[in-house]
Write a structure and sequence with these properties.
- The protein has 258 residues and is α+β, with helices and mostly antiparallel strands.
- Among the domains are: 10-58; 125-252, Histidine kinase-like ATPase, C-terminal domain (Heat Shock Protein 90), CATH 3.30.565.
- It is 52% helix and 16% strand.
- The chain contains 7 helices and 7 strands.
- It has helices at 14-59, 64-80, 84-102, 110-128, 153-164, 196-205, 219-230; strands at residues 108-109, 132-138, 146-147, 171-179, 183-189, 235-241, 245-252.
- Strand 4 and strand 5 form a beta hairpin.
- Helix 2 (64-80) runs antiparallel to helix 3 (84-102) and helix 3 packs across helix 4 (110-128).
- It is elongated.
- Residues 212-217 have low confidence and may be disordered.
Length: 258
């Protein structure tokens, strides 16, 4: 409903004070309603964009059975010709594609998500050879922990595309998992880094739902998905230095078990 401010009554008696207090309360209610409405509109906009992403992914898919059967044929041909590296690459690629195609709203185990990241990094290592290395450092027991699907791989992929691909010399990515007051997952690269201006633009885009890119799952998308599910106190934090690299920190609740 709408709340209109009452007519101001001058004076210092009890009725005047009551009217002033009531006006103050009405103004507070109006501000609260406006804030709740704005937050709801942002959530609905994010949900709509998310569905748009899912639809575009679905629309661009080849029949999964055809895709898996083709990859399995390539893998068996590679095995028959003793091409063990090709066989391993196709196997890992098939598992990554399966997860991407089947992604939904359900939580997945953190262990399976890290396995997906490991496959992705191994494929990149085949590609870059000695130019890159990686390490996944799990510093806690993750057996019972669950996580939103596809929130680590996009960050690792971003580190490659924007940090390591054009870097001169050897590149390295570390994925560190710790369980403290929160579940902390860090993706650390020694790539090109970014300027403070560029970093501020990215951080600003985290809270701008109009900048959410529906063509791919980027940093803003990951950050907003986390906040939508767990609240504003969780999400991404980024630190970067030109010429030294970038660290993306994912903060999640520590007790996600279902």
């Amino acid at each position: 409903g709408e709340y209109e401010n009452l007519q101001v009554i001058d004076g210092f008696d009890e009725i005047s004070e009551m009217y002033r207090d009531l006006n103050t309360m009405i103004s507070s209610i109006q501000r609260l309603i406006s804030k709740v409405y704005e937050e709801q509109m942002q959530k609905e906009k994010l949900y709509s964009r998310q569905k748009d992403v899912e639809f575009k992914m679905l629309a661009s898919q080849i029949n999964p059975h055809f895709l898996y059967n083709t990859l399995e044929t390539i893998r068996m041909k590679a095995r028959a010709n003793n091409q063990t590296e090709i066989e391993e690459l196709v196997k890992m690629l098939a598992k990554i594609l399966r997860r991407n195609i089947q992604v939904g709203d359900k939580l997945v185990t953190l262990k399976s998500e890290l396995e997906l990241v490991d496959y992705y990094l191994k494929i990149q290592q085949y590609r870059f050879g000695e130019r890159m290395s990686y390490n996944i450092d799990v510093r806690c027991n993750i057996d019972s922990l669950k996580i939103m699907p596809l929130i680590i791989q996009p960050i690792v992929e971003n580190a490659f595309v924007h940090g390591l691909e054009s870097k001169e010399g050897k590149g390295k990515i570390d994925v560190v998992v710790e369980l403290k007051e929160r579940l902390i997952i860090q993706v650390i690269d020694n790539g090109k880094g970014m300027t403070e201006t560029k970093l501020n633009e990215i951080i600003k885009s985290f809270n701008d739902y109009n900048r959410l890119d529906s063509n791919h799952i980027g940093l803003s998308n990951v950050n907003q998905r986390i906040k939508l599910l767990y609240g504003d106190e969780y999400g991404l934090d980024i630190e970067s230095t030109v010429g030294e690299g970038t660290t993306v920190r994912i903060e999640l609740p520590k007790d996600i078990t279902r």
